[in-house]
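TICKET: design request
STATUS: open
ATTACHED STRUCTURE:
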């Protein structure tokens, strides 16, 4: 893995990442500083070749220019070692790679994500019709157009209007020479190299002569089965292909001092409150603790109910208490590791019986009750701190639709007597995490699913995870801003048919 093969291409230049500043300290050492911290480098202002090297990387220089600048001072072997340093800077994200035109202007920047990658070039014919893979997305970052791809550990930043136009043309598909002809002549050679590189990396694909477009099935068996948003989230929320540096990833608390952290417990809804029964936990510790293996083995998704005996409210109360209540509260003070985030923030926590990434406990449980003995049919919020239900709506057409959606989700096998809608207060997690917030929320929802499955099984309630809920109906019923709080999972419940576990054992 190396960029050293680019030595003969003067239009490929390397320069420090725009988020990286370099300054000299009083001792004469160069200090590299970025949003995630600073380190005093071994490069010194009083060593001629080091000063030249750092200056070139600040301005941007090709490998040939760097070699030319340091060779007279260092000789063959040490010059080779300097170029290996550029390689290291690129692979670790300290430097970016820029394509420049003959008249020196930057055209396109390759921003590496901190994983080794070797630029290679596929052969390219002038009349070859190129089109972006469907996994490429254009977005705006400040005043630049960015091309994201989950296929490689880098993203592209367009530096000129001509490059913007080229990228747009390739979104639709165009012969290479024709797409390039619209760019100013000094830029064409460099941009042709860029197209060959993107073709090699699978970001640009070739349109066969007889085809107007490519479908997902032209991309191979594995690619065809990925949806664009799924692959993007996968590659952005795991390290490897996502941008690690510059505060773009993980629990970096980017919002301290900008926004208040969301409270650990959402403000209570103001509707009618329905008290819920609590189980005798001491009794349960004694009677149920040794039975986990049995609970695991008897756990099934159950899509049939005892219609004579709808789920009793008392059982619903016990289930919610055991799976979702707030067990205790505390608070911790945090400071961001990012240089552009000032100050500290106190964050409250409201712990629940299940584990959660960052102890955010952003999940809220709402429910649509169809048939629940002791509870009017309608839509409720489970107030996990007060252990009660708060009525939000009666059996409105929207609630009816949510219940019907749950029936559809079971493949029309069962009409859950109660459907839990697991909602997330998104900023509770996004306040802390970059890149992984939504994937953490979905993981947490999975944890809550399994907790509900196990507790329901232990209690003799019929549980069934549901994969497809409706966020628009949820918005209409609750009136909540879907950017702030929205449903991320659903879970069907009902009373277990008599003898169900005996049947399973057989
Ligand atoms: C995240 C998740 C989503 C699910 N979605 C549905 C669904 O929409 N409809 C359904 O009938 N079952 C759904 N299930 C239940 C699975 O089909 C079930 O867990 C799987 O078939 C294994 O069977 P078992 O749970 O009985 O062991 C879901 C389960 C999980 C964990």
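STATUS: resolved
RESOLUTION: sequence designed for all positions
ATTACHED SEQUENCE:
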């Amino acid at each position: 893995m190396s960029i050293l093969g680019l030595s003969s291409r003067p239009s490929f230049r390397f320069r420090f990442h725009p988020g990286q500043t370099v300054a000299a300290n009083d001792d004469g050492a160069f200090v590299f500083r970025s949003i995630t911290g600073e380190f005093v480098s071994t490069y010194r202002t009083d060593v001629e070749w080091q000063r030249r090297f750092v200056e070139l990387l600040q301005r941007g220089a090709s490998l040939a220019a760097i070699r030319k600048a340091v060779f007279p001072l260092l000789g063959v072997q040490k010059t080779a070692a300097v170029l290996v340093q550029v390689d290291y800077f690129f692979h670790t994200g300290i430097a970016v790679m820029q394509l420049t035109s003959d008249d020196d202007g930057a055209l396109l920047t390759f921003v590496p994500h901190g994983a080794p990658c070797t630029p290679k070039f596929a052969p390219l014919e002038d009349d070859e019709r190129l089109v972006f893979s469907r996994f490429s997305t254009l977005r705006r970052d400040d005043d630049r157009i960015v091309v994201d791809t989950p296929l490689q550990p880098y993203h592209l930043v367009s530096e000129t209007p001509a490059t913007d136009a080229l990228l747009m043309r390739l979104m639709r598909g165009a012969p290479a020479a024709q797409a390039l002809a619209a760019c100013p002549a000094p830029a064409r050679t460099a941009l042709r190299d860029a197209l060959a590189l993107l073709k090699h990396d699978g970001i640009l694909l070739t349109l066969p002569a007889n085809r107007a477009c490519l479908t997902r099935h032209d991309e191979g068996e594995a690619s065809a089965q990925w949806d664009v948003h799924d692959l993007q989230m996968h590659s952005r929320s795991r390290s490897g292909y996502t941008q690690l540096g510059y505060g773009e990833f993980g629990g970096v608390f980017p919002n301290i001092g900008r926004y208040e952290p969301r409270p650990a417990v959402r403000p209570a809804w103001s509707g009618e409150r329905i008290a819920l029964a609590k189980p005798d936990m001491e009794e349960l510790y004694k009677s149920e603790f040794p039975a986990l293996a049995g609970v695991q083995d008897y756990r099934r998704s159950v899509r049939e109910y005892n219609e004579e005996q709808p789920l009793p409210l008392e059982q619903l109360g016990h289930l919610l208490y055991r799976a979702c209540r707030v067990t205790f509260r505390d608070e911790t003070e945090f400071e961001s590791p990012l240089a552009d985030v000032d100050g500290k923030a106190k964050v409250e926590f409201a712990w629940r019986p299940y584990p959660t990434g960052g102890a955010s406990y952003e999940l809220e449980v709402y429910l649509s009750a169809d048939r629940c003995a002791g509870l009017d049919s309608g839509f409720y919020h489970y107030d996990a701190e007060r252990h009660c239900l708060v009525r939000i709506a009666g059996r409105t057409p929207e609630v009816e639709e949510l219940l019907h959606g749950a029936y559809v989700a079971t493949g029309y096998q069962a009409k859950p007597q109660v459907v839990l809608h697991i909602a997330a207060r998104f900023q509770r997690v996004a306040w802390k995490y970059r890149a992984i917030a939504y994937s953490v929320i979905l993981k947490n929802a999975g944890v809550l699913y399994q907790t509900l499955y196990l507790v329901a099984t232990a209690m003799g309630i019929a549980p069934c995870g549901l994969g497809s809920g409706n966020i628009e109906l949820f918005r209409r019923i609750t009136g909540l801003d879907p950017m702030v709080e929205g449903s991320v999972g659903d879970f069907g419940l009902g009373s277990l048919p008599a003898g169900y576990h005996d049947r399973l054992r057989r």
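CLOSING REMARK: The chain has 15 helices and 26 strands. The radius of gyration is 29 Å.
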